[in-house]
Protein 1
Amino acid sequence: MANIPENLRYSKDHEWVSVNGDVVSIGITDYAQSSLGDVVYIDLPRVGDRFGTHEAFGSVESVKAVSEIFTPVAGEIVEVNDGLNDTPEKVNSDPYGDAWFIKVKMENPGEADAMLSAVEYEEYLSSQD
Amino acid sequence: MTETALKKTPLNRLHRELGGKMVDFGGWDMPVQYTAGVIEEHMRTRTAAGLFDVSHMGEIWVEGTDAIAFVNGLTTNNVTKLSDGQAHYSALTNDYGGVVDDLLVYRFGPEKLLLVVNAGTTDKDWEWIISHKNDADIVLTNASVDYCQIAVQGPNAVAILKPLTDVNLDEIKYYWFTTGRVDGVESIISRTGYTGEDGFEVYAAPQFAEQLWNKFLDAGKYGAEKGILPAGLAARNTLRLESGMSLYGHELADDISPLEAGLGWITKPQKGEFIGRDAITELKEQGLKRKLVGFEMIDRGIARDGFDVYVDDKKVGYVTSGSPAPFLKKNIGLAFVPTEFANIGQELKIDVRGKLLTAAVIETPFYRRKK
């Protein structure tokens, strides 16, 4: 069963966010990394780029497949985890820790609250099988 | 949901036990990878051994006095050159010189050949072959369900198989085979594979599939640090791609000539009449308009199957197979391009989701094992 930490919020596209004031860290879930398989390449945006809700901000590629990653919340990118370019395998080994992708300053600081809770995300996953 | 409709090999239960991630592969329920993951499965096959279930492949017997002449009339390679116990790679071609399928032809005797064809094309090949039987003195048998096929591939393959058989494996040269017992099970032992490594493909009755599979895992020290790993379709694909081998439906198809796909070495129009020979001869005389080339990405990014290829802002071709190459640690691919752009060093641009990224034509095979 996929690991789903309780303190995070989730999207149906299998992103997670960790809320810290009006800034969120964004990554992909354990379920997502497991579905993709060995991650070998990540394409990320630049600091200062702005995205609306549910816009593709980059992509994650495994040996077998490519998957776009979407912004679960609207805002401006304030930090990018460039280190992942050299260590994309961390997306597999530590999807909720070292392998965060970007940090976004939310336009509407309440937006993350509307995302799925861990329990809701787990129910969503079960409904997909 | 439609899982019950998928065909299963006799190893299906073991794949699931081993943590195989099962996918629908041309109507077959097959493991795309196991718990180790595609990169580790690929690397282990290059450095120790990988174990592959290829039971989904099709087997067709051709028996009778016309066996050799019949197969020679359907395929590009010269069947009359085969000796008993020898196999070769070949192609079934259509009237237009396109490829119906690529296959292995095994000669068991002057009146007995075995054709091993791709899983997804077995039914099509069977229809094609029986439709050309006419009055040939042969008996055709689609024996696909009578066999499991297990490939033991990698530098440790000989050492793994040796204690399980009385057959002298060292005497089986590359692309030769023999029949004999493996762990007491009557088998065809073929020194062939689809990984670019030394190795064997073992054919046996399906009720022995689990026994043989487990024996190979044990003999290969599955679970040990440098032990054998079961390897799924994803590793099978990256291994064959690194080795520059074609995959039907990608580099080969009904509208692709074996000459365009770089299979001139198995295409022998001088051997005599066969289906597609005229078209192939004509293409050879006219010269090829397009060719399959190998490329590596220069820019960061991965080319995938079907991506468009550009030269000087003009679309000139497409990627047939593209992937990260786990052993070579670069991003590679094969593409059809006009012959004028097929030279080593040619710069190509590949449309990776809207971005034109630079690639360069390089020699194939990308990977060649040290002998």
Protein 2
Amino acid sequence: MKELLLSFALFLHRSPKYKAAKQFAKDILFDANNTYKRYFDLTIIFLVISSVLILIYEVKNPVPLWLDNYDIYVVSFIFAVEYLLRLWVHNDLSEMMIKEYNDAKFLGREFNLYTVFKKGISEKLKYMVTPSAIVDLLAILPAYRPLRILRVFILFRVFKLLRYTKSINQFVDVLVNKKFELLTLLFLLLFIVFTSGIAIYILEADKNSNIHTLFDGIYWAIVTISTVGYGDISPVTDVGRAISILIIVSGIAMISFVTSVIVSAFSERLNELKEYRIIEQMNKSKSFMIICGYGQMTKMFFRQQREPLEHYVIMDTDPTRVEAAKKDGYVAIHEDASSHKTLSRFDAEYCDVTILCLTSSDVENIYITLNAKSISKSIKVIARVNDPETIDKFKYAGADEVLLPNLVANTMIYTAIRQPTMYKAIHAILTGKSIANIDEIHVHASHAMVGKQIEDLDFSSSKLLFMGIQRRGKFIFNPPKTELIETFDVLLVMGRKISLEYFKSQHEGDIHVKK
Amino acid sequence: MSRNKIAIFGYGNHGKFIAKGLAADGFDITIVESDKDFYEDAQTNGFTNVLFADVTKDSELKKMNLESFTQLVCVMDDEHLNVFLTLSLRSLFKDSYILSISDSLNVTKKLQMAGANKVIDLYEVSANKIYNLLDRPIATKLLEEFVHNRGGITFKEMVIPKYSFLDGKMAENVDFSSYGVLLIGMIDEELGHTFVFVTAGIAHKLDSGDTIVCLGEKEKLDAFENLIKKKEI
């Protein structure tokens, strides 16, 4: 028996098909980036909604047999399969068995199946008692026809939808944080409800025509303490009324207390929830930018933008600066970009992420650079460096571009003194004054321009100055007029914005100007 | 040549770099410092025209004969001192060209109010560079190479001499690229002393006395500068 189970476990462990199947099940259930998960989720949502609609329709109208069968067999069956799948992928029994066997062999002790099963099954049981697993189980139950009362459990199918709503999870999260306060209040509430419920039962059971059982007493206590007061049961004796007064007063106090606890819990977490939303939003876009630090440099960077930046977030560790950024109308969150946890929340695998390290501290900037590169090499990092001696460190940390504000400014001043006319020209080009834009035209593989001579492109008629070609990492300045354009060339041209646009439109669909 | 006489106030972060670059280009520079350490630093680095003076005192500034300088460059490390200095220089020397460095938006405004002819904002130029790096990486890098003369291609300003073959010609009728240079723009004295790009779409008549800015390899530029002295080609 033991050998048989063990060899079966080994067989499963070695079978690539089994592993692939399990991985697929896992992906479809949990991996948000899986393409099939979307369809799977939509199917479940559809099943839930249709089954609840049938339940509502059924109350007043007879339901056709096929619909009933669909409800019982199809829906319940799929839910049952889903439930079993979740249970299956929760842990790996065969692997545990093999591990235990190897351990036993290593230690020279007897291989014991019982411990493996005990551990494995207790883990499965642990999963089974989680709220979502219970909801899943209850959602299958209505399939059992003989018990009509189980029809009500169809409503549990609605709870299955909770899996797809993040806000509920966040709400629960907030409540869990205030577990201590809420539990204390709950016990106090139970204590008052039970004592006053019992008291009213003892005092009025034979005088009040509405109170027959202890349940009536407790029901009355709850209706009264919650300040709902249906009035179907009301005290008739003076002592009973005195008890009512006590419960009502304590009820008001308690309800306001609970409300304030929940509200404060939310306001404490509100920023976090908002930041969560921002990050979610960013991960949905194809490319975005994370700007670390809101200082002089960042402010200036935003002033340079000719059109408002679309996907970006400013991060700063100083709450006052985050507030300042928000006041200036920018999207900012109070997070530490040098922490692994923060940056790993961004989806660097699927999006183009650019990080600008613009804080005034070199140490901070290096740390952020390293952090970003450790998460994904594909994150582009542009770092500000203050001390020229740390440039090597930045390069070593993997920064794609480094920038020394002092050096840039010094070069500018130097140029301004040395060649004042040229300085004007360069400054105009750099700041993108409308008459002097230098732009890149990226030639694509399937492109009519490929193979043409430069002469044919006729730059001068669109008032453009053709400066050269960047080809395979080398710049060819002022190439001869007979030079042929090749695929993946980048043409460097200068001109007014409208000239560039016109040139682009002339080669509509052919040329792609990188934005 | 008086054109190249420049006074640099401050031998700190910025002054050092600028002084070194300008000295290498053969400018006649005078360094003024009020900090003893920086003053000695400048001397040990081989600068001969180094003055030690308290720049907050007008009497000391007056003694320096600053009218003879073409540009006064205020690059003190202390921004307050820099603004004060700019203001004193402007009040003392009405016609001097003053260039100042600023490290924030507020300081830029103050410097402009103090009368600086040109203010270079440390963060503005850097932020601009980041923007350009993101927007058009290749063009920005190439442009930087042109400016620093790293890739062998650079900008050059040249004045069209009298009796040049260019004198009186329309800019679009001259095929600059056949000489291995590209005309970027010019200062047309007829249209007032402003820089005009060739791509602005205005028909330019080249006259003697105009300054043209060309881009090209160093040798080709030098050859071209010699060429335009000729009457005929």
